[in-house]
Amino acid sequence: MEKAKVKRPITLLRHISQITFFIFIVFGALFGLKKQHLSLLPFIEAPKEYGEYKSQLRQEGRNIAIVGPGYPQAFDTFLPIKSCRFLRQTGTFRACFMHFLSECIGWATPLRLVLPHVLLFVILAVPFGRLWCGWVCPLGFIQDTLNTMRKTLGLNPHSLSDRIKKSFRGISYGLFVSIILLSVISAVAAFPWTLRKQVYLSICQMCPSRFIFPYLGGWPIVHSFIPFGYGVFTTLSTIFTIFLGMSFFIKRTWCRICPSGLLLSVFNRGGLLNKEKDILKCTRCGICLAVCPLQNENVYLEKSHIKKNRMMELKRDRNIDHKACIHCFRCIDFCPEEGCLKVKFLHIKIFSSRPH
Amino acid sequence: MGYHLVRALEFLCPVCRMADSSKEKIIKGIEEEFEGRYPIRPIAERDDKIEEDLAKGIQKNLELLHRYSRPDHLSYYEEILTTSIRVNELKLAKEEERKIIGIFCNFVPQELLYACDSIPVRLCAGTYETIHPAEEILPRDICPLIKSSLGAKLLGLGYFELCDLVIIPTTCDGKKKLGEILNNLVPVWMLELPQKKDIGSAEGLWFDEIKTLRERLQQFTGNKITGKRLRDSIELLHKRQEVFYRLHRLRRHNPPPINGRDFLLITQTGFYDDIDRWIEKTEGLCDELKHHLQPATHSSPRLLLTGAPIIWPNYKVLNIVEEAGATIVADELCSGTQFLYEPVEPDEWTDEAMLRAIANRYLLPSTCPCFIESSDRIDRLLSLIEEFNIDGVLYHLLRLCQLYDIELYRIRQVLKDRNIPMITIHTDYSQEDIEQIKTRIEAFLEMLSNR
Predict the structure, then answer these.
(1) In whole numbers, what is the pLDDT of chain B averaged over residues?
(2) What 8-state DSSP symbol labels residue A157?
(3) CB–CB of B365 and A284 under 8 A?
(4) Cβ–Cβ contacts within 10 Å for residue A182, how many?
(5) Beta-carbon separation of A164 and B376 below 8 A
(6) Residue spans of alpha helices (H) in A28-96
(7) Nearest to B422 by CA among B430, B433, B410, B431
(8) I need a labelling partner for A82 at 20 to 30 A (CA). Which of A272, A326, B105, B107 fits?
């Protein structure tokens, strides 16, 4: 009896990782992961000052969607993924790093409280870059699941033109910058309180997680469209949720504009995890191009970027990291050329493509 | 403004767009590809002497091959190529109303042909004897492959007689014009091949062409190419590719378990043979070869074969080279490795993804010199040289095939830079220049052994 061969081992591993992390991050508390039961590293606990801001907001007497009951999380830390704060009862992590950034700027938290978290983020992000998006992020998993549903139904996928892809990249920069700016506005006392409280935590107010995770975590919140400030954000958030829902047709729509992903993508090229391509072995079959969920062309095009008649002087293994790459390694899993694409960590080969 | 609005709506609603694209396209249908207002009248004289000569040539090839101790499984391939077993099988299939479709070159997607329950047969011919009858229609100064193929059709030999339809991609000038002439004898469809193979415009053009081919095939055969059937045929051909790849990799050993002629024999049996049987037999062959691998020696020079296609029974150059003591361990021929090397790997099993994977497989990795750039072909040669530990390169040129000839200079330069010796053999299907080639190859091999 021949041993059953797994055709796509890396993709299988990734799916297992995604499901495990999804259950751990979204429903971890249901399996006894409570703060009381875990010994925590005290220096990475969330800054205490947050609570005061919340009570100030609560004194306003408004049912503000973004402020929830203060359940303690098992890990009082911020991951570089969408480990959402709206998973108060069931989640294991406090929030995502963008939330932390926005809140710290908004509340002008002292640096000594901020630094441990930033350090943790750097430790997590530098080695892996956007590997978090492809292998861990629960929002990414939801998008992949939507896409799997389409595949099962046998509907054709929809791909984006270059121009739209580029404009999505622009939107992602715009979102990141506006989140930081709005956080600054909410911090500066010179602005009126009515404005400051409305732009407080703008990331959470416009994030599609706001519509998805509360329902998964069993804590539905009221999405108010009035007054005006909240209304704008709620509308934005609704648009983004629909946008995310479009990953049914277009793979990973939200990941193309995600500001957290943008922050992580800084470490894609300069990080420790690299992808390389042997340009001589590449037959340009275009499989890597067809299987990329984010339609990155650089893996395929690397060969044609080489200047005329300079093959002799150039090294054959060329770096193919791209800022939009989520390290799902599908290109490596599908590449039929032995040793053409490889993944390297600290310049040590982890695995490479092989024939099927 | 209106345009942008429509584009925005289109983007926002993929469902709308899908509904739009599923609308029936106006397709030319299976009506004639050519108008054919001025048909030519080919004279087809079936000459027994030609068939005798053909059989003699084949017999001579076999005799030369049988001088070596060869794996037992090879007798099957010889049987398919030399006897009329497969022709009779195809005749039976034809009685069951299965269509037999002749194809030329490496660009016709066999997945589609299998999916509509027809049988593809690759018609590129290598018989010298059929050249003469074709010269009545074609000029003398045209590549022997074209003449040989047309001649075989004029004489009504074997597989040519059985085809219900011939599909020819517009690769070189010879193939382009061959279609119009053949159209007087058998229905011909031309497959328009882009001249570039980039992922911008050319990929889209080719994808549309493949889509149209699917529609036309459905109408022609009367069988609908459903998603399931397409998937089955992709998986079937993928299996064939896997087996082929296994065989291909076995040749890395030193000494290689199989010589170049036998390898081409196996590949070219795949032109005609029943695919399931071919897979089964080749698997058996691979197992046999694996058990009889010999320890490494430094005996015969390892050669890489590239250039114009060598097709059974035109093994003249191969016979000379391998009789002189060298072994061809790898090739980059469109009638050899390139025919089966690339797999179709669809991203997912939806209709569009499968079709796109098929279209990409036949266009993008092709090393055919009919495309505007030769860089990919040179990359492929260099990577084969490294992978198979090559001592020298044999560049086979068919007389009057300009495309391979034009690329020669660049490749010679690249190989010279890397200090890899190369020999160029300029020849055609005739047997006249055997002694001359022999002298040159012997000198080349001696030079290799002195290095």
Answers:
(1) 88
(2) P
(3) yes
(4) 24
(5) no
(6) 50-59
(7) B410
(8) A272
Tell me the DSSP string of B351-362: HHHHHHHHHHHH
Q: 């890395």: which residue's tokens?
A: B252
Give dist(CA B17, CA B6) in Å, integer: 11
Contact B203/A at CB under 8 A: yes
Cβ–Cβ contact A290 with B under 8 A = yes
For residues B165 and B102, what is the distance between their CA atoms, to the nearest angstrom? 6
**Residue B393 near residue B333 (C-beta atoms within 8 A):** no
B351 vs A154: CB contact, 8 Å cut-off? yes
Neighbours of A226 (CB within 10 A): 8
Residue B132 has, within 13 A of its CA and on its CB side, a CA count of 11
Say what the pLDDT of residue A3 is: 55
**Picking from B68-72, B130-134, B191-195, B341-345, which range would have the lowest pLDDT averaged per residue?**
B68-72
What whole-number distance in Å separates Cα of residue B62 and Cα of residue B204?
A: 45
Q: Considering only CA atoms, which of B387, B10, B355, B32 is closest in space to residue B210?
A: B355
C-alpha B31/C-alpha B87 separation (Å) is: 28
Q: What is the pLDDT of residue A55?
A: 57
pLDDT of residue B404: 94
Q: How far apart are CA B424 and CA B306, in angstroms?
A: 10
Question: CA dihedral defined by A46, A48, A50, A55, rounded to 10 degrees?
Answer: 140
Give the tens place of pLDDT for each residue, B203-244.
999 999 999 999 999 999 999 999 999 999 999 999 999 999
Structure confidence at residue B13 (pLDDT): 56
Report the C-alpha gap between A211 and A225 in whole angstroms. Answer: 13
Domains of chain A by range and CATH? 9-263 (no CATH), 274-352 (3.30.70.20)
Domains of chain B by range and CATH?
100-450 (3.40.50.11900)
The Cα–Cα gap between A133 and B304 comes to 45
C-alpha to C-alpha distance for B220 and B230, rounded to whole angstroms: 17
Among the listed residues B293, B369, B328, the one whose alpha carbon sits nearest the alpha carbon of residue B106? B369
CA dihedral A156→A162→A164→A170, nearest 10 degrees, is 140
At residue A38, the pLDDT reads 44
Q: Which residues of A touch B11 (CB under 8 A)?
A: 164
What residues of chain A, 159 to 178, have a C-beta less than 8 Å from chain B?
A: 164
Query: What pLDDT score was predicted for residue B34?
Result: 83
Instruction: Find where tokens 């519509």 sit.
Output: A211
DSSP labels, B398-429: ETT-HHHHHHHHHHHHHHHHTT--EEEEEE-S
Query: Taking CB atoms and an 8 Å limit, are A280 and B379 in contact across chains?
Result: yes
| Complex prediction ipTM | 0.86
Strand partners, B102: B121, B166
pLDDT tens, residue order, chain A (356 aa): 455 678 889 999 999 999 999 999 988 878 766 654 444 444 445 544 444 455 555 555 444 434 444 455 677 778 888 888 788 778 888 788 888 888 888 877 778 778 888 888 999 898 888 999 999 999 999 999 999 999 999 899 988 888 999 999 999 999 999 999 998 988 888 888 778 877 878 888 889 988 888 888 776 666 667 667 778 888 898 999 999 999 999 999 999 999 999 999 988 887 889 999 998 899 989 999 999 999 998 888 887 766 555 555 567 788 888 888 999 999 999 999 999 999 999 889 999 998 87
User: What is the β-pairing status of strands A75-79 and A93-96?
Assistant: parallel
d(CA B306, CA B300): 19
Chain B interface, mutation test: which of A159, A283, A317, A330, most B Cβ atoms within 10 Å? A283
